[in-house]
Amino acid sequence: xxxxxxxxxxxxxxxxxxxxxxxxxxxxxxxxxxxxxxxxxxxxxxxxxxxxxxxxxxxxxxxxxxxxxxxxxxxxxxxxxxxxxxxxxxxxxxxxxxxxxxxxxxxxxxxxxxxxxxxxxxxxxxxxxxxxxxxxxxxxxxxxxxxxxxxxxxxxxxxxxxxxxxxxxxxxxxxxxxxxxxxxxxxxxxxxxxxxxxxxxxxxxxxxxxxxxxxxxxxxxxxxxxxxxxxxxxx
Length: 235
Known about the structure:
The protein has helices at 6-20, 41-45, 47-59, 63-74, 82-97, 106-119, 125-139, 175-223, 228-233. By secondary structure, the protein is mostly helical.
């Protein structure tokens, strides 16, 4: 069990705001989703109650249990109302971005937020929050969604959905991109420093060899000259 941390406490406040706003679809399984079991009757019978149970799990610091519930609700295109699915997906994205969660995965956050953006209609407040979470996920290194994926749940019977909403793009290089650029720069400078050290070592070896040769020549010259005392006697 993961103990509550500051990031989880912030998520709990977001969760409380989402759930208290009233719970008035995701097709497929989100990344990392656990296999659903019959031992969780709350999520099977009442998605809204399951959402509240997930918030309670966050309050208690049981992030894995909360994630399992949130994934099931977000993927339930038949039983869960769109608002409930969206709130579950937003919470799932928040938990996936929480630095206090050792299993945080920006890719899962981006996928969950993107599905809400794809499903939400014009003026939907859930979509506004999903766009922020999506950009945060990209900033932390998540791969951007491509094409029409994720498509989300089909619209309710008798309703049509307009063209999928375009996903937002970062206005500037993401933190992950800047970090990658800094790592490339550091790697290049490390290579340059290694080259300089090798050149310095080679230069030192050449200097030592030259000094040894000078010393050898000096000794040869001294060995070929008469002794100074002998020169004085011959004066």
